Amino acid sequence: RLSQYSTGTETEDEVEEEEEGTVLSQFFIVDKKKVDTLFRRCQECGGLIDPTSVEWKQVASALFATYQCTECKEWMIWESQIKKGRGKSKVFQLNQELPMAAFVTGCPIPRLQDTCDLLKLAVPKERSMREIIRVYACPAIDRVHGEMERFVRNLSKDAAPQLVDDGFKIRTRVSDSNAMVDKRLRENEKLKGIETKRDFWHVQKPLRKEWWTGMKRSDCQRLLEWYKPFF
C-alpha cells in the first residue's frame, strides 16, 4: 500500500502500535534483495528513487518503507499491510487479527508465539497482543453478545402476539413466576385471556431450598427420607 506524507513527519500510529524494531530479514517470506528492486522507480511519476533515502522499519508482522523520488521530490511510504481503525487507533491488520484469532479460538499466546518462532514468522510481542485483546477483542465480543441478548429478548416478547396474528389460539403458557411478564400479558388485549401455568422445574426450585433448610431441624428428620425421591 502506497501513500504520501510530508517531509520529516512520522506516521502517528507505528510508535503507539508497537515499538519499531530493526528490520529482521530472517523473517521475510521474500528475500529482502528482491523487495529492494521494487523501489528503484517512483510509482507516481516513474522517476528514479534516491537509494540512500529508502528507510525500512518493521512493526511486528508488518513492514513499511519510506523513500523520496529524485524527480517529483515527494516523500512516499509503502506498507506491507493495510491498516484498520481510525486516527490514532489505526493498527496494521495482521497485528490485530493474530491475537484476536488466538483469543476467540482459545489458543494461548505463548503457544502462538512458539509456533511463529518455529515458522520464522514475525508477530507482535505478548504484551502488545494482550493489549489488543483487552482494547479491541473484549469490547467487540461484549457488544455482539449484548446485541444478541436484545434480539432474543425482543423475539420472545413478539412471539406470542405474532402467533395470535397468524391465527393460532393460545390457551395456556408455561413459564416461571415473573410479575413483570404477567402484567404485560394482562395489559395486552390479544394475550390477556391466556392462562398461565408454572412448570415443575421453576416450582420446585424455591421449594427445594426450603426443604433443604427444614430437614436440618431435629423435628423434621423425616423430610430427609423424602428429599431424594422427590427432587
From TrEMBL:
PANTHER family: PROTEIN CBG10204, SI:CH211-108C17.2-RELATED-RELATED
Name this polypeptide is given: Uncharacterized protein
Organism this protein belongs to: Pristionchus fissidentatus
